[in-house]
Amino acid sequence: MTGKAKPKKHTAKELQAKADAALTNRGGGKAGLADRTGKEKGGHAKYECPHCKITAPDLKTMQIHHESKHPKLPYEEPKNLHEALAAAPESSSKPKPGIRGSLKK
């Protein structure tokens, strides 16, 4: 016999944690892709490794990444992605010639 036929009671803390996990955006799936990449719409990834192009949210994380993945290369402080994108001029909206399917007939 496994136990008595009494239903288990859930605490308010468990119920609140379950509701929080279900309703909070954790950045997964297609909805969180822009947030993870950080290139559009001001995501969390503010820095990009110049060697392997991986993104990181802050300088300390980027330094840890560089020390573990590129130990033989000298560490150079990367540029902020958001500042670089804001300073870059916008490209023209004209389609580039030679790209298949770019022009409507």
TrEMBL record:
Coiled coil: none annotated. It is found in: Cytoplasm; Nucleus. The keyword Cytoplasm applies. This is C2H2-type domain-containing protein. Residues 36-46, 73-82 have a biased composition (Basic and acidic residues). Residues 1-46, 65-105 are annotated as: Disordered. The keyword Nucleus applies. Residues 1-11 have a biased composition (Basic residues). It comes from the Eukaryota. Keywords: Cytoplasm, Nucleus. It comes from Brassica cretica (Mustard). InterPro entries: MBS1/2-like.
